[in-house]
Amino acid sequence: MNDKKLIDACLRGGFEEFTKIMEKYRPKALAMSFNILRNREDAEDVCQNAFMKAYRNLGTFNQKNNFSSWFYTIVYNCCMDILRKRRRFSDFVRKEKSRSLSIFIEPDENRASVYDKHIKNILGCLSPKERAVLYLWACDRCSGEEIARILNCSWSTARVHLFKARKKIKKIMEKKNDQLRNA
Amino acid sequence: MISCGMHKILFRLIPLNGWRAFLIQKHFENCPRCRLDLASRDEVLTFLVQENEVDEICSFEGPYEANAGEAKKRQIRISVSKLRFAWTAAGLAILFLAAFFFLGHPFSLWRQEGKGENGRFQLHYVKVDNRPAQAYLFHPQGTDLVIIWAEGNTMEDPNGET
């Protein structure tokens, strides 16, 4: 069943159809939010919030538009909300960390992961907006117009973000390669 | 044809997204040399978490730590922008002083010339009884005083009119 039929069924009150939408879009939403936030727990929170918002506002969705773009906009806005909310705690965390109080959950370095520190550093060099643009461009193969619609910015701004992100990644890759060659 | 270097300078010089997007579309994405500076889709994909990898992922950073990193970056960005503002202000002040110093001289000369013109006294002709008269000017030294002595022409007209 395609998105349109599922949404029509949802609007008629079918919750099972919405579960199907969730199953279809959850991995995408989780991957996108994880790439932006770089934290699994936050990404899962974002996913949950985004689906709740989508369900509540499904009536406002214009069916002439692409559902995935509309849903990604919600996911992106939820990510930005989380970043904004948690920003104010960052100073407090830094101060407490300097006092060497271990009240915060440390990322588990020993846990098996396909991503090593090298990749972590590369993603960390980009801003959340750049990470979002890169994800949409590379993983979802969105066009410039679609990215601009999701990020709620102009086409030119999206293009500049993408250009800068690609350039940064290339630069870091070259630097890392040089380091490996020298070592 | 503008070279790649020139395009890079133009990109940095004018921080308008519309202009930058135009340069990206016209040059950076089409020039084979400039395209080497950009990561390809496949290269980018190796650094991003994709849909099929979602179940394997664990946090890169703790929730607050991730945001602390963002805040740190923001602080660095703010300090960089402050520094940029300070440098721009200093540059403008230097330019203003230089302009004042160099352009100050012609201005002062112009003012002096103006003063000279105002102090000069000119007299084209003097008429007495609606007839041209002999005029004498006296300028006593060390004063701004000018005395004009005009002598009416009382010579009789050859036709007998005065």
- Classify the helix fraction of chain A into a percent range: over 70%
Q: What is the percentage of strand-forming residues of chain B?
A: 5-15%
What structural class do you assign from the helix and strand content of chain A? mainly alpha
Any idea of the CATH topology of the largest domain in chain A? Rna Polymerase Sigma Factor, Chain: A
Q: Strand content of the residues of chain A, in percent?
A: under 5%
Radius of gyration of chain B in whole Å, from Cα? 40 Å
Q: Residue ranges of chain B: pLDDT <50 for 5 or more in a row?
A: none
List the helices and strands and how they pair.
The complex is a heterodimer of chains A (183) and B (162).
Chain A: H1 3-11, H2 15-37, H3 40-56, H4 67-98, H5 117-124, H6 128-138, H7 144-151, H8 155-182
Helix pairs in contact in A: 1-2, 2-3, 2-4, 2-6, 3-4, 4-7, 6-8, 7-8
Chain B: H1 4-13, H2 17-28, H3 32-35, H4 41-45, H5 63-119, E1 126-128, E2 131-138, E3 147-151
Antiparallel strand pairs in B: 1-2, 2-3
Helix pairs in contact in B: 1-2
Write a short abstract of this structure.
Chain A is mainly alpha-helical.
Brief descriptors of the model:
heterodimer; A: 183 residues; mainly alpha; Rna Polymerase Sigma Factor, Chain: A; Arc Repressor Mutant, subunit A; 2 domains; globular; B: 162 residues; three-stranded antiparallel sheet; 5 helices
